[in-house]
UniProtKB/TrEMBL annotation:
<dbReference type="Pfam" id="PF00291">
    <property type="entry name" value="PALP"/>
</dbReference>
<dbReference type="GO" id="GO:0004794">
    <property type="term" value="F:threonine deaminase activity"/>
</dbReference>
<keyword id="KW-0456">Lyase</keyword>
<protein>
    <submittedName>
        <fullName>Threonine ammonia-lyase</fullName>
        <ecNumber>4.3.1.19</ecNumber>
    </submittedName>
</protein>
<dbReference type="InterPro" id="IPR050147">
    <property type="entry name" value="Ser/Thr_Dehydratase"/>
</dbReference>
<dbReference type="GO" id="GO:0006567">
    <property type="term" value="P:L-threonine catabolic process"/>
</dbReference>
<dbReference type="InterPro" id="IPR002912">
    <property type="entry name" value="ACT_dom"/>
</dbReference>
<dbReference type="GO" id="GO:0009097">
    <property type="term" value="P:isoleucine biosynthetic process"/>
</dbReference>
<dbReference type="InterPro" id="IPR001926">
    <property type="entry name" value="TrpB-like_PALP"/>
</dbReference>
<feature type="domain" description="ACT">
    <location>
        <begin position="346"/>
        <end position="423"/>
    </location>
</feature>
<comment type="similarity">
    <text>Belongs to the serine/threonine dehydratase family.</text>
</comment>
<dbReference type="InterPro" id="IPR044561">
    <property type="entry name" value="ACT_ThrD-II-like"/>
</dbReference>
<dbReference type="GO" id="GO:0003941">
    <property type="term" value="F:L-serine ammonia-lyase activity"/>
</dbReference>
<dbReference type="GO" id="GO:0006565">
    <property type="term" value="P:L-serine catabolic process"/>
</dbReference>
<dbReference type="Pfam" id="PF01842">
    <property type="entry name" value="ACT"/>
</dbReference>
<dbReference type="InterPro" id="IPR005789">
    <property type="entry name" value="Thr_deHydtase_catblc"/>
</dbReference>
<keyword id="KW-0663">Pyridoxal phosphate</keyword>
Length: 423
């Protein structure tokens, strides 16, 4: 039996479907009254840091803090009256669930979201707070997805895929319509890829508008190295997929079938980024632009930071596609960024276990004006002699030069000092 999407097409028809600029313009007209036309702004500081001219599209300013509601709303508005009455269902533990729930509730369409039982409570609460009915089923996303598809058939609901559907991709493409209208000088778009809905829509717009703008627009996709599914397919290589990535919003094991067809047509290249660059990008956007983004939302900037030579001198547009990041995780990212910059450090110092030994070390910190945050002693679980002592000191310096001066000063006094490094 063929599964119907929200416009009554069979799955086979979806795979044969096309995505063109007219559909994206129609989506823009359809959703415009309920979606924020987010600003596209030039960043002087990020341009100086990267060597490229950087424009930022602040999609983290949508009501649900992510671009996902564009595609979800477009799909909802194309439902028949009968489909609206019965309701929709989706499998998602991310931004799609919130965008679909918010706009579905606003339009009077019942929304059911299936999440794995392992989903953090905060994500369940966020979806319920905007009107979605959450069902926890299965231990993995694949199991939750399978359950959602079974409920679609049993209850006569309409399944709204988070990315692998033309109506959703058309809605996501409206990001590029706004971006290129506000900053027509952009010549390169760097777009995060999870399932491929965003880059399919944006790439279609970019290639269609090149003649109108008077210059070609390069479309570059970016994925976390831990989840390189679209990259591997694009480059015809076999790479492992999995792990804990900061960019969980694009942590997809396999891109969509429909979106893969569009990617082949409109994407010029795909690059990978490591976790430290994702963390650096999140921290930079908060420190410089005063805006909160999740890991996936910072992936575009991470790509420019990781591949500076590729983007030097180019006019680059980046989409801050989401801002839903756990506050504890954000705090951890910011502290790790301080550590990488040399402003925070943990030093392991070997001492003799005698009165006054620690005081002498602390005097060195005082002389170099480095603030001590925490001190940890280890007498038992160490390879040192019984009279030896390992002291871990967490400290805060003005910059890396000040920290290096302290370490040199301690070593000059005969102390064995090592610094705990991050990955």
């Amino acid at each position: 039996m063929n599964t119907l999407n929200n416009s009554g097409q069979t799955q086979e028809a979806i795979l044969d479907a096309k995505l063109d600029i007219a559909e994206i313009h129609a989506a823009a007209a359809r959703i415009g009254d309920a979606i924020v036309h987010t600003p596209t702004m030039y960043s002087k500081t990020l341009s100086r840091i990267t060597g490229a001219d950087i424009w930022l599209k602040f999609e983290n300013q949508q009501f649900t803090a992510a671009y996902k509601e564009r595609g979800a709303l477009n799909a909802l508005l194309l439902l028949t009256d009968e489909q609206r009455k019965r309701g929709v269902i989706a499998a998602s533990a991310g931004n799609h669930s919130q965008g679909l729930s918010y706009h579905g509730t606003r339009l009077g369409v019942p929304v059911t979201i299936v999440m794995p039982r392992t989903t953090p409570t905060v994500k369940v609460m966020q979806t319920e707070s905007v009107g979605g009915k959450v069902m926890l089923e299965g231990e993995t996303f694949d199991e939750a997805y399978a359950y959602a598809r079974s409920m679609e058939k049993q209850l006569g609901l309409t399944f709204v895929h988070p990315f692998d559907e033309p109506n959703v991709a058309a809605g996501q493409g409206t990001v590029a319509l706004e971006m290129l209208a506000d900053a027509p000088e952009i010549e390169t778009l760097v777009v995060p890829i999870g399932g491929g809905g965003l880059i399919s829509g944006m790439g279609t717009v970019a290639k269609s508008m090149a003649a109108q703008l008077g210059h070609p627009i390069e479309v570059i996709g970016v994925q976390a190295r831990l989840y390189p599914s679209a990259y591997a397919r694009f480059k015809h290589v076999d790479l492992p997929s999995g792990g804990d990535t900061l960019a969980e919003g694009i942590a997809v094991h396999e891109p969509g079938k429909f979106t893969s067809q569009i990617i082949d047509k409109v994407v010029d290249d795909i690059v990978l980024v490591e976790e430290p660059h994702l963390e650096e990008a999140v921290a930079l956007l908060l420190q410089i632009e005063k805006t909160v983004v999740e890991g996936a939302g910072a992936a575009g900037l991470a790509a420019v930071l990781a591949h500076k030579e590729r983007f030097t001198g180019k006019k680059v547009g980046l989409v801050l596609c989401g801002g839903n990041i756990d506050t504890r995780l954000l705090a951890n990212v910011l502290l790790r960024d301080l550590a990488r910059s040399g402003r925070l450090a943990r030093l392991q110092i070997t001492l003799q276990d005698r009165p006054g030994a620690l005081f002498k070390v602390m005097r060195e910190f005082n002389e170099h004006n480095v603030n001590i945050l925490e001190i940890y002693h280890q007498r038992i679980f160490t390879n040192l002699p019984a009279k030896g002592l390992v002291t871990d000191i967490e400290c805060e310096a003005r910059d890396r030069e000040q920290l290096e001066a302290l370490i040199s000063g301690l070593r000059a006094k005969g102390y064995s000092v090592s610094q705990v490094e991050l990955n």
